[in-house]
Amino acid sequence: MSIVKIKDLTFKTFIPEAEIQQRVKAVAEKINRDLDGKNPLLLAVLNGSFIFAADLIRHITIPCEISFVKLASYQGTTSTGEIKEVIGLNEDLAGRTVVIVEDIIDTGLTMKRMIESLGTRNPASIHICSLLVKPDKLQVPLNIEYVAMEIPNDFIVGYGLDYDQQGRQLRDIYTVIDP
Ligand code: IMP
Ligand code: MG
């Protein structure tokens, strides 16, 4: 087990690189089976999913395309508070099979917002692919078809995920240790 310190927090190894790679490959193989002939458009949500998306697409053997979007957060005027807007999407989604590629689904509110926004662009179908899911935290119903790993509620970093923008380059996934 290895320990890393990032700012005020200490983390320990949680999911080693080799296991991440195995799980990512298994998810890609399911996409290969399910979406053969559909020329899926992977839509990776930056920043957190960049490493997962890079590994995932290299295990996808069917014709596919990839593009990247970001979410702009701002304080909305509604009672729900923070509204997230999808930015950077130039592709025409009409009739496309879209696979949203996320790093982690926590409450699921980000993903719900993504689906609502992309749904207005008339895709043939929208599928969810997430490296990690915290099932106990999910607040909204989501059909998560492609998930590499389910994890407990603890805060994690590495393999693209950050703590205050740090730690994304760690090859393993680390979980926070109580101080
Ligand atoms: P949600 O809208 O609550 O599902 O939030 C998902 C977003 O929160 C992810 O895209 C991450 O950016 C961030 N997030 C949630 N849990 C973690 C974590 O354990 N480590 C790092 N980022 C996280
Ligand atoms: Mg994210």
UniProtKB/TrEMBL annotation:
Its EC number is 2.4.2.8. This is Hypoxanthine phosphoribosyltransferase. Keywords: Cytoplasm, Glycosyltransferase, Magnesium, Metal-binding, Nucleotide-binding, Purine salvage, Transferase. GO terms for molecular function: guanine phosphoribosyltransferase activity; hypoxanthine phosphoribosyltransferase activity; magnesium ion binding; nucleotide binding. Its main location: cytoplasm. The keyword Glycoprotein does not apply. Its cofactor is Mg(2+). Gene3D superfamilies: 3.40.50.2020. It is found in: Cytoplasm. Pathway: Purine metabolism; IMP biosynthesis via salvage pathway; IMP from hypoxanthine: step 1/1. It catalyses: IMP + diphosphate = hypoxanthine + 5-phospho-alpha-D-ribose 1-diphosphate; GMP + diphosphate = guanine + 5-phospho-alpha-D-ribose 1-diphosphate. It comes from Segatella maculosa OT 289. It holds the Pfam family Pribosyltran. Residues 20-163 form the Phosphoribosyltransferase domain. The keyword Ribonucleoprotein does not apply. GO terms for cellular component: cytosol. One of its GO terms (biological process) is GMP salvage.
